[in-house]
Amino acid sequence: MPTSISPAIPLYQPPGRSDGDMNPTYFSGPSTAFLKPYQEMGPVFRTRIFGQEQVALGGVEANRFVWGNNDLWDYHTSNRMFREQFSDRYLNQLDGAEYQHKRRRVNQGFKPSMLASHAGSMAEVLHREIAKLPEGRTELRLFCMRAVIKMTSQVLLQTDLPDGMDTTMAISNKEMLRASSLGWKRWLWYQYPPKRFRRWKIFKFLGQVIDERDANPQAKNNDDILSLILQAITPEERASMPRHELIHDLSQLFMAGSTTSSMIICWALLQSLADESWLGELRTELAPWDAANLTGMANFPRLKATGLETERMRPGVPVFNRTCGKDFEFEGHAVKAGTPVLHLHTLAHFLEECYEDPLVFRPQRFMENPDLPDRWVHGTYGGGAHQCVGQPLARLQPAIAIAEILRNYDLEFDEKPSLEERYDSVTAPREKALMVRFVKRS
Ligand code: HEM
């Protein structure tokens, strides 16, 4: 596709790739793939990735610029992959007043006190899932994805999912996210029959959930995410809202964390288990842990720091595709409206000027300096108007899972995890399968 990118912006050529393609580097090490290009080229350069040439913007000043200038970005185009797979009412591809209105409604669903009141039931469902594992054995990544979906069901609907729905949702969400790295080939991907069948199954189930709520609106005492969001919709809005819009919204809330939050759990377990001294401290801190009476993280600074350090080192979505809706200038470079921009929003996590020894897993840094993380450095949840709406849940759910698992189980891996990463819809462990056995601690 022709772009209007100025040739004055320098092109980064990865070593050994005369075609300039960054895909191999990114797919084999997403979190730090753009560190070297940034060090060599500065905060603005051209790059070829995901099937097109883009202007990469990275570093703390780029974060300030991108997140501080909401009206520059055309989300309708940036997030078209979501519209193509859902509809033109899907939250993250809306812009302007329509977006703000819908976003305000969805925000209502994430009240921290309501979320925390479900911590006990989220912990219970996690233990039920572990108890069901044959001989305690499972593949860790898929297990974490399924666990997050089951936990989400408690806080979103206060309901257990039908058998197999967790796996269907986990796979379907990964399939949905894959579209953004396929370029034009995504149109073929959308037709893949098993992908279509999984979506049909999920939407059918979610349609039933909505019909049941409509038939009995007081059933859940307005004490879950769905109830709070439904409450924020006026009867007039509801009357004109297509049924599929609510189904898609619900599916977004179900699945948004299944790939990302699940990876925070997975990486936090891997990193903590690999560091005996930290693991010991964490387990001592967790002795009085009781999810059913959780009021906050104040008594669990190590647990909180583990989550933050994992978000820093293994951000689920390390770079973000955007399209600018207007011409702009950054660091002396002019960029024309319509240009694809690759915002390296988590690059600053790995800069020496932001963190000492940035490539080392050291959660203590967040306990030693209470001013961390800095809002312009920590990009895990994005920023600006579209910053992740699920962040309150994304901080709570992994904390519960990490605490419950490390406090109550030892994890025996078939093979020692490498702790290396690769890109597989999100920042995932390098191993295709991480077989593990959950062993109850005495
Ligand atoms: C560790 C877990 C998570 C990570 C790393 C993450 C990351 C992100 C990022 C990077 C964005 C885009 C922000 C931007 O445009 O600048 C986003 C948006 C969003 N996230 Fe999350 N997310 C996580 C968990 C969740 C959860 C648990 C939910 C809901 C249950 C959720 C729901 C959403 C929604 C609805 C949006 C679109 C927001 C909008 O466009 O207004 N996320 N997330």
Write the layout of secondary structure elements.
Layout: H1 23-28, H2 35-41, E1 44-49, E2 52-58, H3 60-68, H4 75-78, H5 80-85, H6 96-107, H7 112-117, H8 119-132, E3 137-139, H9 140-156, H10 165-178, H11 186-189, H12 193-215, H13 225-231, H14 235-240, H15 243-274, H16 276-285, H17 301-313, E4 320-323, E5 328-330, E6 333-335, E7 340-344, H18 364-368, H19 391-408, E8 409-413, E9 421-424, E10 426-429, E11 435-440
Parallel strand pairs: 2-7
Antiparallel strand pairs: 1-2, 3-11, 4-7, 5-6, 8-11, 9-10
Helix pairs in contact: 8-9, 8-19, 9-10, 9-15, 10-12, 10-15, 12-15, 15-17, 15-19
Bound molecules: protoporphyrin IX containing FE (HEM).
Short description:
The protein is 48% helix and 11% strand.
What kind of sheet is the major sheet? 4 strands, mixed
Under CATH, the topology can be stated as: Cytochrome p450
The quaternary organization reads as: single chain
CATH architecture: Orthogonal Bundle
- Helix proportion: 40-55%
The structural class is: alpha+beta
CATH class: Mainly Alpha
State the separation between the terminal residues, measured CA to CA.
60 Å
Alpha carbon gyration radius: 22 Å
Got a strand count? Answer: 11
**Strand fraction:** 5-15%
